[in-house]
Write a structure and sequence with these properties.
Helix content: 25-40%
Number of strands: 9
Strand order of the largest sheet: 1-2-3-4-5-6-7-8-9
Bound molecules: pyridoxal-5'-phosphate, iron/sulfur cluster
Shape: globular
Distance between the termini: 66 Å
């Protein structure tokens, strides 16, 4: 080159970041300087529910520290393989609420569309870790039928893109679907529940904004951020882009032992969400899914924790403490014990 300049660095696409996710237990242990002696148990747990974590999430973890709150959410561990009474494969009875492929209709007035079966990250506590996504992989015919289902039920006022992770779908797919839904007069709102931008903030592109925000429907995005360390500058930039496009951004978290069960973790999460204009919406107690018992925090402890938050934060930064109960038409609010 004439002036000895170097070519500008192309930003890496989210698709490449997704494709390059770490799925090999040995590679993850090496990447984070973790004890190689962990390999047999990590491999055994990953055989039940595979390891998957993208690099932009790994960079936010401390090396060589098994107690890192982000690592704990994705590292397969031996405890997952213990059989625990009361912890089952389908704790929410979603297979029963699966009205037709791709549709989960269990909340009044809103309907969940399983837009994409895939996830960018495999969270060890996930209540859908045993969900039969393969049966919910939709072809064009299924999409037409799902849209027909929405069109034929005037009680559906809100469509919620769900998954897997709905943002694992292409912008083209999302743009088409959103246009079709916006053409159904009784649908008034669109919502997206996603963890993908938390692990790959590069997913929030102008193409995605155009796909989601190009219709009459107001858009809400509910991020699934569990810890303040997840909100790095790249995610903050992604949130800014969403808010500039008039997207209402909320957060829901799961209360997880060893990840965010201390008061200081919850305060830090709420404060940093508030700094970026994201409202903490829900704090879920763990769904009792097989393999996740080691994350459980009792309801009594949860209600005291949120009670302490109420005395330290403005009300709008305190999430609602809820449990998801099979067969209920919404989340069940849990009592909060006011604490000093
Ligand atoms: C709770 C929940 C909903 C519905 O939430 P509401 O805000 O109560 O309507 C949709 N998607 C996911 C993933 C949820 O956890
Ligand atoms: S991103 Fe959500 S659906 Fe996917 S594994 Fe994590 S918690 Fe489960």
């Amino acid at each position: 080159m004439i002036h000895g300049s170097i070519a500008p660095v192309e930003p890496v696409s989210w698709q490449n970041l997704l494709a390059d996710s770490v799925t090999d237990p040995a590679a993850l242990l090496r990447r984070l300087d973790l004890d190689p002696a962990l390999l047999p148990q990590v491999t055994a747990a990953a055989a039940d529910f595979s390891l998957r974590v993208p690099e932009p999430y790994i960079v936010r973890m401390r090396r060589g520290d098994l107690t890192d709150p982000l690592l704990r959410q994705i590292l397969p561990v031996g405890e997952e393989l213990l059989d625990q009474p009361g912890y089952v494969s389908d704790p929410l009875g979603e297979e029963a609420a699966n009205a037709r492929p791709g549709i989960i209709h269990k909340y009044a007035g809103r309907l969940l569309l399983v837009v994409s079966a895939g996830c960018a990250v495999n969270c060890r506590y996930c209540f859908r870790r045993h969900f039969p996504y393969e049966d919910n992989r939709l072809g064009t015919d299924d999409w037409i039928k799902a849209l027909e289902y929405i069109r034929n039920d005037p009680s559906i006022r809100e469509v919620i893109y769900s998954g897997g992770d709905p943002l694992a779908a292409s912008d083209r797919r999302l743009a088409w679907l959103t246009k079709e839904i916006a053409a159904i007069p009784h649908v008034r709102r669109l919502r997206v529940h996603t963890r993908l931008p938390v692990v790959i903030p590069q997913r929030i592109t102008h193409g995605l904004i155009d796909a989601l925000c190009g219709t009459r429907l107001p858009v809400t995005m509910v991020l699934h951020c569990n810890h303040a360390n997840e909100l790095d500058t790249q995610l903050a930039q992604a949130v800014r882009t969403l808010r500039q496009a008039q997207v209402m951004v909320l957060n829901q978290a799961v209360l997880l032992r060893g990840v965010n069960d201390r008061l200081e973790d919850q305060l830090a999460l709420s404060e940093i969400l508030g700094d970026h204009g994201v409202l903490p919406y829900y704090l879920h107690v763990l769904d009792r899914v097989r393999g996740a018992k080691h994350f459980d925090v009792s309801e009594a402890e949860a209600s005291q924790l949120v009670g302490r938050m109420l005395t330290r934060l403005p009300g709008f930064l305190v999430p609602r403490l809820v449990r998801e109960v099979a067969g209920e038409h919404g989340k069940v609010p849990l009592p909060v014990e006011l604490m000093d």
